[in-house]
Amino acid sequence: MPKSSKVTQREHSNEHVTESVADLLALEAPMDYKSSQMSMNMAGGGPPPIGKPDISPDLEDGRPAWNSKLQYILAQVGFSVGLGNVWRFPYLCQKNGGGAYLVPYFILLILIGIPLFFLELAVGQRIRRGSIGVWNYVCPRLGGIGVSSLMVCGFVGLYYNVIIGWSIFYFFQSFQYPLPWSDCPIRRNGSQAIVEPECEKSSATTYFWYRETLNITSTIADSGGLNWRMTLSLLAAWIIVCLAVIKGIQSSGKVMYFSSLFPYLVLFCFLVRGLFLKGAVDGIAHMFTPKLEIMLEPQVWREAATQVFFALGLGFGGVIAFSSYNKRDNNCHFDAVLVSVINFVTSILATLVVFAVLGFKANVMNEKCVVENAEKILGYLNSNVLSQDLIPPHVNFSHLTSSDYAEMYGVIKIVKEDSFAQLGLEPCLLEDELNKAGAVQGTGLAFIAFTEAMTHFPASPFWSVMFFFMLINLGLGSMIGTMTGITTPILDTFKIRKEFLTVGCCIVAFLCGLLFVQRSGNYFVTMFDDYSAGLPLTLVVVLENVSVAWIYGTKRFMQDLEDMLGFRPYSVYFYLWKYVSPVCLLVLISASVVEMAISPPGYNAWVQDLATERFQSYPPWALVMCFALIIVAMLPLPLVFIARHFNWLPDGSNKLSVSYRKSLAKEASTLEDETRFILGKNPSEAPSPMPSHRAYLGPGSTSPVELITNSTSISGYGSGYQTNPAPPKSES
């Protein structure tokens, strides 16, 4: 309780409290707070009436609740574990020192990942609102945090569901043998049959991705019209998402039982199958061989922090929305640690699977290289360009191994040093193939490298169906969280039927998503992925951290957690929230801005004639679009701050759920009882005016009693308790 509390001031006065503070605060019909179980047995307090049911908060305000703790955990896991765990984390490991990359990742998971994830879970569970309602209440002037979070969710959801649409297309294409991307198509040129040149210059899987699936144009300026197959796939993706979230957590919670667990079944199946493939151990060993010298580079730590940040879904609003449907005494600290550990373990599991399969692919490609170059050497031997004396006697061309070829290659290179370049022989090193295989990420890994590896599997259609069905479920889990982060704050603010809102959002999103299913749509997916979320979302989380730790007050927040959880969280969280996490996030923002400034804005365009990707700069209108995405996402932050500072926008901080307002009312009733008890005694006999453990969760540092007695007007539900609320006071 703040020292400026009216209760504390009235300890030394003879004033009597003449109004029922609880009734004013609840703004509803008077309640018998004397018989409340939260009241102390003092001054008229007593046991609750016999037969009166104990109504839980989620029943009082009609707010939906999770059917079980397992359902809630699966929802959080499904939201946090997404496509990035499968196609981003393995690439970052390979790029940033292999096993050594796990060290900075784990350190940053402890320093910023778990604390900030715990923070979002706690505020959502405590206030029982979506992102807009939570940050309006914690700090009304920073209420734009919730709006910006919602905007980012919208941008990400638009292109993320396109990826699910691509996965749906590949899923249905997998029900045929051989797989359609196994071989290059044959083109008839009169009576002559020739291999499609674009495919021959690249590969069958690359051709299928760029030409058969995307039918991509060569520049972002050339839209090429709608790709009707991708349009239908996108429509199917939005129908699935709509059906999953149309009833809120009642429908999405049931979907999570399958969509969250099925990917683990597939990953374990792929891991077991992959370990029996030739070259799988080489791939895993290559992956986890630590390169300690790389670990100290700042770029490695920046990318590790970014991956931790996005892997847990911080700032999107989905974490807060999911936790707002919990009971207020749920152990959210356990949930934060559990989900973070599951996310980390899943990333490692996915990395094992990816590099086991890519190791097999590298081995196949290396053997292919050996065969092709051995044929060249045989040709040179037959034409007397090379002497038979250069070939070691134990080498058998009909059963040539990689080691035999490496020995033969070394001898020829030494003897024919002057003319060796004209021979056109390749070293065919497995290490080179592993580096090449591990250097792909995102769609390149899922739709090109991994699909190519699966064509060499026995029963390849089965594994292809399983893989793309896994991608659909991984994406669906993340989309459910993203959609919940959009719909929950809107439903909390406006009284709309969730079915109408969900269907309306999905229809609008599908229409906007047509931008991404043009023939040039892949370039816009890249643009949105690079610019719509990164910087705005990092800023959102920084302000979340600052608003709780510095404006609301870390000590008050820790006390609220103790009241809510029944135990006090570890003291280390105090320092992590107040000092470590803000500093790390500010460094991350600075590094992101510097990276954005020094990296030329552009995209990798597919050049059909060359059958390869080539970097191109964005045209001026596309540059404007890039920076508009950043500005639009961050614009609510200053707008809401200015509007609330000059009282142009109503203070939405007290638009709380009925259950939460009633809990405040009960607390205020207890404070009133204590005040009357104190005033009824002589000062020398009066006990301590306020137990030290009482904490009031609010944007300012005032008590419930002061909040009411200082009010100039009291209006109905949906308006603030004060017409001119005092600015929040920082509490350290």
Automatic annotation (TrEMBL):
Annotated positions binding Na(+): 78, 81, 85, 343, 474, 478
Keyword Transmembrane helix attributed: yes
Location in or out of the cell: Membrane
Biased composition (Polar residues): 711-724
InterPro entries assigned to the protein according to its UniProt record, in alphabetical order: Na/ntran_symport (IPR000175), Neutral_aa_SLC6 (IPR002438), SNS_sf (IPR037272)
This protein's UniProt keywords: Glycoprotein, Membrane, Metal-binding, Sodium, Symport, Transmembrane, Transmembrane helix, Transport
Transmembrane region(s): 72-90, 102-123, 144-172, 230-249, 261-284, 304-325, 337-358, 462-488, 500-519, 531-552, 573-598, 618-643
Chief place where the protein resides: membrane
Membrane topology according to the record: Multi-pass membrane protein
Chain spans, region Disordered: 1-20, 711-732
Biased composition (Basic and acidic residues): 8-18
Recorded family membership: Belongs to the sodium:neurotransmitter symporter (SNF) (TC 2.A.22) family.
Identification of the protein by name: Transporter
Biological source species: Cyprinus carpio carpio
